[in-house]
Amino acid sequence: MPSFASMLRVFAAALLSVLPLDAAMAADGYYKNKSVTFIIGSAPGGGYDTYSRLIASHIGQHLEGQPRVIPQNMPGAGSIRAANYLYNAARKDGTTIGMLDQAIYLYQILGTPDLKIDAVKFHWIGRILRNNAVLFARREAQVQKITDVFNKELIVSASGTASRLNWTVLKNTLGMKFTLIQGYQGTGDSMLAVQRGEVDALSIEWPILRITGQPLIREGKINLLLQTGLEKEADLTQIPRMIDLARNEDERKLLELFSLPSLIGRSVVAPPGTPPERVAELRRAFMATIQDASFLADIRRTGLLISPLPGNELQAAVAKQDDFPPALIARARRAADMAGH
Question: What is the distance between the alpha carbons of residues 85 and 159, in angstroms, rounded to a whole number?
Answer without folding.
Answer: 20
